[in-house]
Write a structure and sequence with these properties.
Chain B: This is Transketolase. The complex is a heterodimer of chains A (about 375) and B (about 280). Chain A has about 375 residues and is α/β, with parallel strands linked by helices. Chain A is built from 15 helices and twelve strands. The chains are: A alpha/beta (about 375), B alpha/beta (about 280).
C-alpha cells in the first residue's frame, strides 16, 4: 500500500476549530433541547469501540490513529450500519448463479451499502447519479430486457420523489423491479424533515400491483431479498438506516402476506413493522413485570396484509398498531380497514408519527419523543386496556 | 454495437404507409370523438421509415428478445402507431375498430401489457427516454444487437427527466440508443417554444454528449431516411439524437403548421376534405 500522505496542518486546525464551534453552538442550544435528551454521551466516549472498528474495512477511510478517537469519516460511519445487508445479500445471490441481478442507485451506493456489489460486478451496477426519476425509468427498461433490477436508495428520494415513476414505469407495467428504500421514517433525524419519509406507506399502499414489505433488521432484509428476488412483480422493501436493534438471529421465509408472531400473551396484541418490532418486544418485557401479557407480531408484509393475523389479534383483545410512519394512511390505517371491513369490533390504538411534519433531532431522541420505543408502545397498550 | 441490415424498400411504399398512418388517424379519431391529429401527422414519415425499413421486429414473435425497441415519449401519438402494428400483423386489424371503446386494448396512449408490438407503456411525458436508457444498457449487458429508439416531442424537452436521461445515455456511452425529437411546434397551449423555450436544442444535445443530427425536414423521405439511418447504423460510442423539424398536421392543409389541431375532432364535411387531401398528397 502506498504510504499515506501526511495531513496538512490546516486540516487538523480546521477540524479543531469546527469542533470548538460545534461545542459552542451546542451549549447555546442545549437548554431548549434538554427535554429531548435521552442518553447524552459520556465525555470522551469513543464514537465506536476498538473491537467494532476492527471488524470494519477501513481501506478507504482517511481516519488514522493520529486522529482523535471520536473522529470519523463516511467509511467509519457506514461500518456502523450493520443492518444494511442489501449489497452483501445480492453478492451472495449473484455468486449462487443469479447473473440477471443488476443494481441501480442514485449516488447512494455507499450510504445504502450496495457499493460492494458494484466493486465485484461493475458491469451490473448502475449509478445513475442524483437523478432518481431517470433511475426508476431505466430500472423498468432493464426489467423489460429480462434482467432483475434491484434499486437501493434512501426511501424519501425513491418512494416520495419517485412515486409517479414507480406508479407509471414499474407498477402500471407490472415489471419485476425490486426496490429497497432505506432510512425510512425519521431515521435521518437531524438531517431534517425534508429527509424524513413518513408518507411512503400511505402513498405506495394505494398503487396497484405493488407489494409493500418492511424488513425490521439486517437478517430480515436479507431474508426478504433471498425469498423474493425472483418474484415476477414489483416489490418495495421499506428498510431502516442500518442501525436497527437485532430482532432475528436467523433468516426465514419472508413470505408475501406473511407475519411472524414473536411473543404470545393473552391481554393485547401489538402488530408492528420496522423499528417498532423491537419496540414491541421491549414493551412486552416492560409490561410483563406489571402482569400484562401481550402478543407481539412482526407484520412485515404491509400489502398484502396477513389478515388472519389481524383476526387472531382481534379475538385476543385490543390491538396496538406500531409503525415509524404517518398514522394517516399508513400501516395502522391498513389494520383499521381490516377491523372495520370484517366487523371485528375491537379497539385499535395507533402508535406512529402524528399527521404533522416531524421535528428534527438525533434519531434516538426522536424515537423517544414520538413514543416509538418500548416505553411508548407499553404506554399505548396500557391506554388500550383501560378502554 | 453492431449496426443492423437495412431493408431495400421503395420510396413509394414509405409514402403509402405514411398515408395509411394519416388516414387511420382520421378514422380512429372519428370513432373516439377526439384525437391528436397534429402529432400523429408530424411523425408519419419517421414512423413509416422506422417500421418498414429500419427497425428489426417480428410481428409473429412480438417478444423476440433481439428485437429493436421503440418507445414513445409522445405517447399521445400512439393512434398513428397502432395502424402500422396492425398492418404488420402484430394484432388483428379489426382491433382498430374498437379504438377507445369501453375495455378496448387501444386508447390514446399505448399499453405494453395489452398491445402486441408496444414495447413500453407511456402517457406521462418525459419518462420513456429513461426507459430506453435501461433497455440499451440491458441489450449491451446481454450482448444483444437490439437498439432502443425513443420518439419524443418538442414540448417534452421541457421535462427535467429528459436531461437526466441524456446524461445517463452519454455517461454510459450507449451507441445502441437513439432519441428522435419530433419538433412540430404544437403543444396544448401553443408552440412549445412560446410556452417554455427549449431551443437551441442542437447545442444542448451536443453539450450533453450526444451525436446530434439535425433533420431539417422530417417529411422528406430521403433526408429522413438518411438521418435515421446514420443515427441507427453508424455507432460512434455515443447515443444519437435526431432533431426532426416537422410540421404539425402535415398532410391536411387546414391543420398544417397550427397548434390548434394538436387535439381536435373533424365533423362529417371536414373529414371528407381531410381524407381527400391525404389521398391526393404526395409528401416526401
Amino acid at each position: 500500500m502506498a504510504p499515506r500522505l501526511p495531513r496538512a496542518e490546516g486540516h487538523r486546525t480546521r477540524l479543531c476549530r469546527d469542533r470548538r464551534r460545534r461545542d459552542r453552538v451546542r451549549s447555546e442550544t442545549m437548554s431548549q433541547s434538554e427535554k429531548y435528551r435521552a442518553n447524552p454521551p459520556a465525555p470522551g466516549m469513543a464514537y465506536m469501540s476498538a473491537e467494532l472498528k476492527k471488524t470494519i474495512d477501513l481501506a478507504e477511510s482517511t481516519v488514522t490513529d493520529d486522529f482523535d478517537e471520536r473522529s470519523w469519516d463516511m467509511v467509519v460511519s457506514l461500518g456502523l450500519s450493520r443492518q444494511l445487508t442489501t449489497g452483501r445479500t445480492l453478492i451472495e445471490l449473484a455468486e449462487a448463479g443469479h447473473d440477471d441481478i443488476v443494481v441501480c442507485t442514485a449516488d447512494l451506493g455507499r450510504p445504502t451499502q450496495v457499493i460492494g456489489f458494484g466493486q465485484k460486478y461493475p458491469d451490473r451496477y448502475f449509478n445513475f447519479g442524483i437523478a432518481e426519476r431517470n433511475m426508476i425509468g431505466a430500472a423498468a427498461g432493464l426489467a423489460t430486457m429480462g434482467l432483475t433490477p434491484v434499486i437501493s436508495n434512501y426511501s424519501f428520494f425513491l418512494a416520495l420523489m419517485g412515486v409517479e415513476n414507480i406508479r407509471n414505469d414499474i407498477c402500471y407495467t407490472n415489471l419485476p423491479v425490486k426496490m429497497v428504500g432505506t432510512h425510512s421514517g425519521i431515521a435521518m433525524g437531524f438531517y431534517g424533515t425534508s429527509h424524513h419519509c413518513c408518507e411512503d406507506i400511505g402513498a405506495l399502499r394505494a398503487i396497484p400491483n405493488l407489494t409493500l414489505m418492511a424488513p425490521c433488521d439486517g437478517t430480515a432484509l436479507s431474508s426478504a431479498l433471498r425469498t423474493n428476488v425472483k418474484h415476477p412483480a414489483p416489490i418495495y422493501f421499506r428498510a431502516g438506516r442500518g442501525r436497527e436493534a437485532v430482532v432475528y438471529d436467523k433468516e426465514f421465509d419472508f413470505r408475501i402476506g406473511g407475519s411472524n408472531t414473536l411473543r404470545e400473551g393473552r391481554h393485547a396484541t401489538v402488530l408492528a413493522i420496522g423499528n417498532l418490532v423491537k419496540a414491541g418486544l421491549d414493551a412486552h418485557d416492560i409490561l410483563k413485570s406489571e402482569g400484562i401479557e401481550i402478543t407481539v407480531v412482526d407484520m412485515y408484509s404491509i400489502r398484502p396484509l396477513d389478515v388472519a393475523a389481524v383476526r387472531d389479534a382481534a379475538k385476543r383483545g385490543p390491538i396496538v398498531s406500531a409503525e415509524e410512519a404517518n398514522i394517516t394512511g399508513g400501516f395502522g390505517a391498513a389494520i383499521a380497514e381490516v377491523i372495520a371491513e370484517e366487523g371485528l369490533g375491537t379497539r385499535l390504538t395507533k402508535v406512529g408519527m402524528p399527521d404533522a411534519y416531524s421535528v428534527l433531532g438525533p434519531p434516538t431522541h426522536l424515537y423517544r419523543h414520538y413514543g416509538l420505543d418500548g416505553e411508548g408502545v407499553a404506554a399505548a397498550v396500557r391506554r388500550a386496556l383501560k378502554g | 454495437m453492431p449496426s443492423r441490415a437495412v431493408r431495400n424498400v421503395d420510396r413509394s411504399l414509405i409514402r403509402e404507409k405514411a398515408k395509411l398512418i394519416r388516414r387511420e388517424t382520421v378514422r380512429l379519431t372519428d370513432i373516439c370523438g377526439s384525437g391528436h391529429y397534429g402529432s400523429s401527422f408530424s411523425m408519419a414519415e419517421i414512423v413509416a421509415l422506422l417500421y418498414y425499413q429500419l427497425l428489426h421486429v417480428k410481428a409473429d414473435e412480438p417478444r423476440w428478445a433481439d428485437r429493436d425497441r421503440f418507445t414513445m415519449g409522445k405517447g399521445h401519438a400512439a393512434i398513428g402507431l397502432f395502424p402500422v402494428l396492425a398492418d404488420l400483423g402484430f394484432f388483428p386489424a379489426d382491433w382498430l375498430d374498437t379504438y377507445s371503446r369501453m375495455g378496448s386494448f387501444l386508447g390514446d396512449h399505448p399499453e405494453m401489457k395489452k398491445v402486441p408490438g408496444i414495447d413500453f407503456s407511456s402517457g406521462s411525458i418525459g419518462h420513456n427516454l429513461s426507459v430506453s436508457v435501461g433497455m440499451a444498457l440491458g441489450a449491451r449487458l446481454k450482448g444483444s444487437p437490439a437498439r432502443a429508439v425513443c420518439l419524443m416531442g418538442d414540448g417534452e424537452m421541457n421535462e427535467g427527466q429528459i436531461w437526466e436521461a441524456a446524461q445517463a445515455g452519454a455517461h454510459y456511452g450507449l451507441d445502441n440508443l437513439v432519441g428522435i425529437v419530433d419538433i412540430n411546434g404544437a403543444g396544448s397551449d401553443g408552440d412549445p417554444q412560446q410556452t417554455l423555450r427549449s431551443e437551441p436544442l442542437k447545442e444542448k444535445w451536443e453539450a450533453f454528449g450526444w451525436n446530434t443530427i439535425v433533420l431539417r425536414d422530417g417529411h422528406d423521405i430521403d433526408l429522413t431516411f438518411d438521418a435515421l439511418n446514420r443515427a441507427l447504423n453508424a455507432p460512434d460510442g455515443r447515443p444519437a439524437c435526431v432533431l426532426a423539424y416537422t410540421v404539425a398536421g402535415k398532410g391536411v392543409s387546414f391543420m398544417e403548421g397550427t397548434w390548434q389541431w394538436h387535439l381536435g375532432f373533424l365533423g362529417p364535411k371536414d373529414i371528407e376534405r381531410a381524407y381527400a387531401e391525404i389521398d391526393a398528397g404526395e409528401i416526401g
